Each structure stands twice: as C-alpha cells, then as structure tokens.
Automatic annotation (TrEMBL):
It comes from Anaeromyxobacter paludicola. Keywords: Carbohydrate metabolism, Nucleotidyltransferase, Transferase. Residues 207-295 form the HIT domain. This is Galactose-1-phosphate uridylyltransferase. GO terms for molecular function: nucleotidyltransferase activity. Residues 71-174 form the Galactose-1-phosphate uridyl transferase N-terminal domain. Gene3D superfamilies: HIT-like (3.30.428.10).
Length: 333
C-alpha cells in the first residue's frame, strides 16, 4: 500500500509509492511496437485493467473490446490505491495516511503513431469530455478532495509509454500548488472584488504582447512570470472555477486552443517533450467567484533544475514571455 507523508515544516505532502518503480519504460523515440504489443492499441484491451469509461464504441459493442475513440482504464502501476481507508495517523511529530486515491490512464486515440496535437479538434474534445466524465464520477467518492488531470508527453517529461495518453490522480488532499493559487486568488478578490484570472485575461487580450492564440471562448498566452521557457496557459474567457462544469460545446473551443498551442510549440521547438496540467476548483467545493480553472502547458526545458532552484524555490527562465509568445504566434498551428 502506498502512503502519503506530510513535511512538518512547510506542510507539503509526498506520495511514497514503491510499486511505481516496476512500471514498464518505453522511450518516446521508440518505434511502434511490432505485432501489436502496445497495451493501449486496439485488440490489446485485455492487457489493461477493465475500462471505467469509453467513447465511440457503438451500441452492442463488447466492453473492453475494440471500436473505441477514447478509453479510460485504471493505471496498472498506480501511485495511489483505490481500496482501503485513509487511516490518518501521527508518528511523533509526523503525519501520514494510507495512499488511498484513484490513478487512471486516458488513452487519447486508438492510433498508435498519433500525438494529441495530431488529432482533430473534435477528437481532442472527446478527450477533454472524458476528463469531465471521470471527475463527475470520482467526486462521488467522499474520500477524494481533488482530481489532478495531467499529461506527460515524451520520456524527458516523464512518459513511460509512447502511445498518446494522459492521466488523472484523485487525491485525499488538495495539492499545495493549487491551494496557493486558490488563496492568492481569494486575496485579490477580497481586495478588489474581481477574479484575478479574469483580470489577467482582460489585460493579455488588451496588450497582446504575450498572447499566443484566441478564439471565441479561450485565450492562450505566455504568463507574466513563466517558470520555464515557452510555458503557456490556456484560460477560459468566461469565469468558471470548475473544469467539470464546462459544457461540451465550450470544451470544443478549449480543444482548439490546446491543440493549436501544442502544434505551435511543436513546430517552434522541434516537437519537445512537454507536460500539461489542468488546475480546477477542489471536488464538491461550491463554485468560486475568485478562482478560475485553467490549463498550464510546460515544454520540457533543456535546463536542468539545479541547486539554486531546489534551495530557493525560484525558477530561472532565460526566455522573456513576450519573446516566446511572439515566436509562437509566427509559426503555423
């Protein structure tokens, strides 16, 4: 059983998950497996745990069979386990709890050689709708407080398999980084009675120097203080604190913004490894007037994190966001 341990000084929780060391490793540069050996390819559904969500399979199609467009399965090597109780305990001054949660894999396409950026807007919409469906299901489990949706693309970004997929982890706590965002947004709202994310969207649309892409419902821009080169945020224009509250029609606009951003980053930087994360309001929290869900895209940096970054928490970024945004605007998406 994995476990969660809390740092008593800064309050940061760490997952201790020894089973993750046994997961398979397939480099991003590896060719498509011969003979259909990839567990995420059609016809290999028996190589994964039973699906918990599927789209595209027609009526009467057998569960865990081919014919799907998006498929969600539990991770075979989960960071947290779905079974059991939290059993919060103290060990002297330390706090721990059982590593209870959910860890799922969203297989984004049945086509092994395609990346998320290669899909159509409609296909990416189906992926985002699968995200929404899983959050709505998992929030019924009262042990969970937060669902983090994320993607690791490429070995340098932490991906262990080549076939296009993203992941979610349902947690019994809200991640510290999200909590800091929520608290910072709340302070801004208490002072100015406005959502800080709405203010940022308004300023980026007005100034346009950091704007990467815009459609009717979403903007993509380089944030004012990016942690790494070409970090890009995708934020809805309409105020909404919860990702799962978005209707499918607006998720289609998000899909267009996300796909365009990934294609431009790929064209500009030679298809780097990257991560993206969806930050949303915690599960079952009421809709917040101060917080605003968003996607953060982080191309894998050629710079390694060194002693200063680890010791101070500061990030050193040699690329001004204005330059990064101008570069991305000039490449075709």
């Amino acid at each position: 059983m994995p476990e969660l341990r809390r740092d008593p000084i800064v309050g940061r929780w760490v997952i201790i998950a020894t089973e993750r060391a046994h997961r398979p490793q397939q480099p991003r540069s590896a060719p498509a497996p011969a003979g259909g050996l990839c567990p995420f390819c059609p016809g290999q559904e028996d190589k994964t745990p039973h699906e918990v969500y599927v789209s595209g399979r027609g009526p009467g199609g057998p569960p865990d069979g081919p014919g799907w467009k998006v498929r969600v399965v539990p991770n075979r090597f989960p960071a947290l386990m779905i079974e059991g109780e939290l059993e919060r305990q103290a060990e002297g001054i330390y706090d721990r709890m059982n590593g209870v949660g959910a860890h799922e894999v969203i297989v984004e396409t049945p086509e092994h050689g395609k990346s998320l950026a290669d899909l159509t807007d409609e296909e990416v919409t189906e992926v985002l709708f699968a995200f929404k469906a899983r959050i709505l299901d998992l929030r019924n489990d009262l042990r969970f407080r937060y669902v983090l949706l994320f993607k690791n693309s490429g070995a340098a970004a932490g991906a262990s398999l080549e076939h296009a997929h993203s992941q979610l982890i349902a947690l019994p706590i809200t991640p510290r980084q999200v909590t800091e965002e929520i608290e910072g947004a709340r302070r801004h709202f208490e002072h100015r009675e406005r959502c800080i994310f709405c203010d940022i969207v308004g300023q980026e649309r007005k100034e346009r120097s950091r704007l990467v892409f815009e459609n009717e419902e979403f903007v993509a821009f380089a944030p004012w203080a990016p942690r790494s080169p070409f970090e890009t945020w995708i934020v809805p224009k309409r105020h909404e604190s919860n990702f799962e509250a978005e209707p499918k029609a607006r998720l289609g606009y998000c899909a267009q913004a996300l796909r365009t951003t990934l294609r431009r980053i790929g064209a500009a930087l030679g298809h780097p490894a990257y991560n993206f994360m969806v930050h949303s309001n915690p599960l079952r929290d009421p809709s917040s007037p101060s917080y605003h869900w968003h996607v953060e895209v982080m191309p894998a940096s050629t710079q390694s994190v060194a002693g200063f970054e680890w010791g101070s928490g500061f990030h050193i970024n040699p690329v001004p966001p204005e330059d990064a945004a101008e570069f991305l605007r000039k490449v075709s998406g």
